[in-house]
Structure prediction request, 306 residues.
Amino acid sequence: MTQAAIEIDNLCKTYAGGKRALDGVSFEVPRGQIFGLLGPNGAGKSTLINILAGLVNKTEGRATIWGFDVDAHPRNAKASIGIVNQEITFDPFFTPRETLEIQAGLYGVPKAQRDPMALLRAVHLEDKADAYSRTLSGGMKRRLMVAKAMVHSPPIIILDEPTAGVDVELRQQLWAYVKSLNARGVTVVLTTHYLEEAEQLCDRIAIINHGKLIANKPTRELVGMAQEKVVEVTVDRDVAALPENVCFQKIELKAGRTLVITFRKDQANAGEVLGAVQSGGYGIVDVSTREADLEDVFLNLTRAVG
Prediction:
C-alpha cells in the first residue's frame, strides 16, 4: 500500500474536439491531511475529480486511490473515496434516512453496519430524518450530500465547492464536521473559491490553471511566496503630491491624508517606507499594515500563466 492517499501521475484528459482539460498533472495527497485543490473556473479541477470518481476516462497517465489503481481496481478505488459534488444529487421523494439507506446498499454495506441516524446527527439533520428531501433548505441538502458521501466510511472524502451559496452558520457547521472527520483520520480533499477558507483549513494546497499544475506546497510555504506587503500611512496634512521613492512598488491616496503604499518584502522593510514618507516632509499620525495572503499568491500565480 502506498503512503499517499491519492497519487496522480502525468494525468491528461483531452475531450472530443481537442479541448485539453488536464495536461500532465502529477501530485500526491498525503494521508491524514486536509488538502486544497484550487484553480479558476475551467482550470481542470472537476475533470480531475470526475476521473477519480470513475465518471470520466483519462486520456493518459495514472491515478491511484488508497493504493488502488482506478483502472486496474475500480471497485476498490471507488470504495475508498466519498465525493460531495457541486450539484445536489439525490431523489427528492426519498427521506434523508431512506437516501442514506439506499446509498449504503449501493456500496454493499451490510444492514447491521448501517447507521443513518448517526450520520444525520453528525450533520445536524436528525430532526429531518423522515421529511421528504425536497422540503429541505439548500444548506440542509448540502449537509445531506456530505452524509451520503460518508455512508461506506471511506478513508478519503472529496468536497467539491461544498460551501458555494450557503450561509456563514452552515459553513462553520460544515467545517466543524470536516475537521472532526479529519481528526478521526479521514483524508480530506477540498476545492473552494473561498481562499480564506483554504488558508485556514488546508495543510497543503495544489493550484491548477489551464490544465497544468502550477503550485503544490504546504499552505504556510505557499502564503510565504507572497512578497508584497501593504502599509497604510495617515499623515499630518493633506497630500498635495504623492511622495516618490524607489522602495515604493505602488502608492495611492486614500481620502485626503491616508497613503496606501505597496512594497516588496525582499527589497525593503516598513521602516524604510515610513522613513521615505517622512523625508517627503510629512509627519506620521497612524500606521497599519496588511500581510499578503493566499488570495494574493493565487492571483499572482494564475496571472503569470494566464
Observations:
- Residues 158 and 189 are 5 Å apart (CA to CA).
- The mean pLDDT is 88.
- Residues 4-223 form a domain with the Rossmann fold fold (CATH 3.40.50.300).
